[in-house]
Structure formats: C-alpha cells, structure tokens
Write a structure and sequence with these properties.
This protein has helices at residues 16-28, 41-50, 60-64, 81-90, 105-118, 132-142, 172-175, 179-195, 210-213, 278-281, 311-323, 333-352; strands at residues 8-12, 32-37, 55-57, 71-74, 94-97, 122-124, 149-157, 200-208, 236-243, 248-254, 262-269, 272-276, 287-293, 296-300, 356-357. It is α/β, with parallel strands linked by helices. It has 2 domains: 8-124, Rossmann fold (3-Layer(aba) Sandwich), CATH 3.40.50; 128-309 and 339-357, Dihydrodipicolinate Reductase, domain 2. Strand 4, helix 4 and strand 5 form a beta-alpha-beta unit. Helix 1 packs across helix 11 (311-323). The longest helix is centred in the last third of the chain and has 20 residues, at 333-352. The protein is globular. The relative contact order is 0.16. The structure holds nicotinamide-adenine-dinucleotide. Nicotinamide-adenine-dinucleotide binds at residues 12-18, 37-40, 43, 60, 75-78, 80, 98-99, 125, 127, 167, 182, 222-224. Nicotinamide-adenine-dinucleotide is lined by residues 12-18, 37-40, 43, 60, 75-78, 80, 98-99, 125, 127, 167, 182, 222-224.
Amino acid sequence: MTNKQTLRAGVLGCGEIGKRGHIPGFQAAGIEVVAVCDTNLARAQSVAKEMHVARAYGDYKELLADPDIDVVSVGLPNFLHAPVTIAALEAGKHVLCEKPFATSTALAEEMIAAAKRTGKMLSINQHLRFEGTARAIHDAVAEGRFGRVYLTDARMIRSAGIPGYGSWFTNKDMAGAGSLYDIGVHMLDLAMFMLGFPKVAAVRGMLSSALGEQKIGLGGWGIDRGTAGRFDVDDTAIAHISLADGGAIRLIVTWAAFGASEERVTLFGTRGGADRSPDKYGRDTPLRFYQEHNGAMETVIPDTSRYPGAGTSASIASFIAAIRGESALVVRPEEALQTTRILELIQQSAVSGHEMAA
Ligand SMILES: NC(=O)c1ccc[n+]([C@@H]2O[C@H](COP(=O)([O-])OP(=O)(O)OC[C@H]3O[C@@H](n4cnc5c(N)ncnc54)[C@H](O)[C@@H]3O)[C@@H](O)[C@H]2O)c1
C-alpha cells in the first residue's frame, strides 16, 4: 500500500480537462501535483505557474521518467490514450486515463494487459458514475426495485456543441470518432453502470455528420479552436443495444442538432422505473422513481444526499482511495473494455448497415 503522505501526481495534457479537471481534482484530494506536461511547453509552463506546480515538461517521456511521481492522469487527444497509458504503467505509475478509454478493443486489451503485467492501478474518468443520481439508480436496480429493466433510454442532445472545430476533436485520425467518443461513451457507460454491466447480445448503430460538415452547431469546448480545419467525424450517434436478458439500451447523442439540448437517462422496468432529467425536473432534484402503490402509479423524489460528491474531483478521490487500498476501484478497466467493444460495434454497424452480433 502506498504511504498517504508520499503519493504524488503528474498531469499529462494541460488543455481543458488537465487544467480544469485533473490538477484541481488531485489537489482537492490532498495529492500534490509535482509536474505537468504538454507538447505546447508554453501552455504547460503557464498552467504550472498559475496552479502552483513545480515542474513543466514538453515531452511525456520526461514526466514518466520523473521518480517523484506515483500516479498520472492522461488528458490527451484520444489516439494517445493507449500508447501513453501503457508507457506510464511500464514506468511504474498508476494511471487515470480519460474517456474514451481506447480507440479499439485491441488497444483496450493491451492497456489492461499492461496494468496486469506491471501491477499498477488503471482506471478511467467516467465521472458521471459518481453523481448521486447515477449511484441511486445503480443501487435501486441492484436491489431489484424496478423488477426487470427492459428498456434504458440514454441521451445527450447538444444543439450547438461541436468542440474545437478543426482541432484534433474533429480529425478522425486523432479522435477516432466524434460525438460517439466524446459524449456517447459517457451516456453508454452511465447506462451500463446503472444496469450493472449486463451482457450484450447485438448492436445496431447509425452515425451522421450532416451539421458539422456545414459548420452548423459549433460549441465552446476545446482549447485549440479554429474554423478552417478538418471535420471527418460524426456529430450524431444513435444505437440500439440488445441485451442478452431480452432488454435493450437506446443511445442518442449529438454534438449539433436542430432541437433543444437535453441530457436524460430513463429506465423502464417491470415493477418500476427511473428518470434522471435535470432539464425536465431541475438541477436540484433531477431524479424521479416511478413505482406501483396500491394499484396506482406513484412518483417518488429519491433522497440522494447519502451519495455526496460528483464530477472529476469525486472520480479522482475515488481512484486515490483505491490506490491506497481504502476502497474498491469503481471504474474498472474491464468495464471500459466492454464499452469500447460496444462503441466499435456501433461504428461497424454504421458502415455495414447491419446489426452486429456482440
Ligand atoms: N471526462 C470528461 O468529462 C472529459 C471532459 C473533457 C475532455 N475529456 C477527455 O480528455 C482528453 C483531452 O481533452 P481536452 O478537452 O482537455 O483537449 P484539449 O485539446 O483542450 O487538450 C489537449 C492537450 O493535449 C496536448 N497534447 C497533444 N498531444 C500531446 C502529447 N503528445 N504530449 C503532451 N501533450 C499533448 C495539447 O497541446 C493540448 O493542450 C480527451 O480524450 C477528452 O475526451 C474528458
């Protein structure tokens, strides 16, 4: 077990998530961030100065060679997740990798093999799992409160949310996919987590890029923004995921759409259901449970106060606790492997036009 006082972090990537999520997340967990790294060295130096980090590197290999560092976060463009995570594990660091875990099932398997080989802890920043609403639904499903859940509808509609148009986000070679990997992975992971990672039987997917190609729906996210660069990824992803128990997950995500923005997960079961919708019910009490009571349909606003914490800070705190052996790992790489496989099948189905067996 690692000594609580000596666990120190390095942050790879000083873009949006590195600066806004990882550095403050480690610091809030009481972990000193001793170094940051970005190929844009001026960016790394400026972030280090602003956020009280001692060292700034321009090459991730330099940071990985730093013996003071026990744990690293990987907040880099998607195509770098696998090679940098594997190199970090080989360098003896615990790794919190950003989502999407990997751009292929084969790479995800290599990452897991590297963690096993090195004995280091590997997790993924699927921080939506740490929201009280997600944990309340997860526990209610596990307790059988809704009976058999036969349909889970997960959607994140952004009407104008194409990040960093012309940056790595919209370049297929660097991103792997667009909305599917950026927000689809969040909603898929959330639905699978709520259901307890059920076995998947088959996947049908559809990808579209109609608005992005017209430069409609540009959003604010992404540190390296432009208007002239490459756009060859999806801005919309839809999937029907058939589960081995006869149920299904329906996934709809968009970066850009002629419609209102919405983030929602709805579960329909044989004895009850749940609806997590900040847009419909408000951010203070975004969750409803539906259940039968004396022959009538009853609506309950569940108390989620027993699930404190949310976001990347909660995700990092939980990862640190797992490294210290204080609690079990919440986001397990084997689960991320399963979602990676589903995302791959969605892409294959979108190309072939056929349902893909899992
Ligand atoms: N969990 C979440 O909710 C969440 C939110 C945002 C981003 N992310 C993920 O984090 C990752 C980064 O996203 P972002 O929004 O911070 O992107 P970004 O473009 O803002 O930042 C990426 C940074 O990486 C740097 N970089 C590129 N290649 C590098 C290399 N070889 N070595 C070191 N630095 C390099 C860039 O210069 C840039 O500063 C993506 O995989 C994204 O999906 C996750």
